[in-house]
Write a structure and sequence with these properties.
This protein is α/β, with parallel strands linked by helices. It contains 9 helices and 10 strands. Strands 1, 2, 3, 4, 5, 6, 7, 8, 9 and 10 form a 10-stranded mixed sheet that branches. Helix 3 crosses helix 4 (111-117) and helix 8 packs parallel to helix 9 (255-268). The two termini are 27 Å apart. The relative contact order is 0.15. The mean pLDDT is 95.
């Protein structure tokens, strides 16, 4: 049973008692906080569809990425406290408004509150949108409740993962987590242009670190040689967060950097998924965290 007492929800396994007011790495208390709940149209086409993804942005994070675009919620913890019953009402309201799915962004550290809100099973797909740094044991508690996993795979380079996100064990942890996600969902199923079941792995190309991206693509090609899993190569890096003024993170990626990774994808046969236009590299894609829908 997942619990805030002796918290081991994420791979950091802090062991703190959040019900007694102790805070672990995520810095969050023993009650779910969220910063926004609304239709979101800027995910991959199979996630956003024509009517938007019912996205709930959860406060806090189990990573500490120096380039994070959502610092106000991920690090600063901005958000409104909710209970499981209210969270369920939010899901149902979004569904009534016509969204194609319920999209939970960085939910892991609040699963003891979120899991009850997912019962009974919602009538639309549930998307688990996370940074990829997940405990396999925790993910197993989600089996049958999550239809679509939407993890990042940020790093193949352990040293880079340690320097930028405080998680030098990220490559191994994320590889095991994604394998578990794929085991649960099976091959991707797309109906009427919507991903209703499966796993879509995202990777953001970072400026000056093409080798890391090449390693991620190589891992993906080796892990899923028979297909069935989608891959999204993102070009939307914008200098933000604590590294915004530190080279090379003080610039956007170049077309040459992105082209190099795309070429490696093609060479290794990674063709099922998405690439991104450079127009995506804008702050306009970061939604306002203003407690909408809560």
């Amino acid at each position: 049973m997942l619990s805030y007492e002796r918290c081991t929800l994420c791979p950091r396994r802090c062991g703190v008692n959040r019900t007694a007011g102790e805070r672990g790495f995520c810095g969050m208390p023993a009650q779910v906080h969220a910063a926004r709940a609304a239709a979101h149209y800027w995910e991959e086409p199979v996630i956003s569809g024509n009517f938007g993804s019912g996205t709930v942005f959860i406060s806090g994070c189990t990573l500490r990425c120096g380039f994070c675009q959502n610092t106000v919620i991920s690090r600063d913890g901005f958000g409104k406290p909710l209970d499981s019953a209210r969270l369920r009402e939010i899901f149902e309201t979004l569904i009534d408004e016509g969204v194609q799915n319920i999209n939970l962004v960085t939910p892991t550290h609040f699963l003891p509150d979120i899991l009850p809100a997912l019962h009974p099973k919602l009538p639309v797909p549930v998307v688990y949108n996370c940074g990829g740094y997940e405990s396999v044991e925790t993910l197993r508690a989600l089996e049958g409740l999550v239809d679509v996993y939407l993890p990042d795979f940020k790093y193949a380079d352990a040293a880079l993962a340690g320097a930028l996100s405080g998680a030098p064990d990220y490559p191994d942890i994320a590889a095991a987590a994604v394998a578990e996600m794929v085991r649960q969902t099976g091959p991707c199923v797309i109906e009427d242009g919507e991903l209703v079941r499966g796993t879509l792995v995202r990777h953001l190309v970072l400026p000056g670190h093409v080798d890391n991206s090449l390693g991620v693509v190589e891992w993906f090609a080796g892990a899923f040689p028979d297909g069935g899993v989608l891959f999204s190569l993102m070009a939307q890096y914008v200098p933000m967060g604590s590294l915004a003024h530190t080279p090379p993170f003080d610039r956007r990626i170049t077309e040459a950097e992105y082209a190099a990774v795309r070429s490696w994808m093609e060479l290794l046969g990674v063709r099922d998924g998405y690439v991104q236009d450079f127009e995506a590299a804008t702050r306009d894609y970061v939604p306002p965290f203003d407690l909408t829908g809560l």
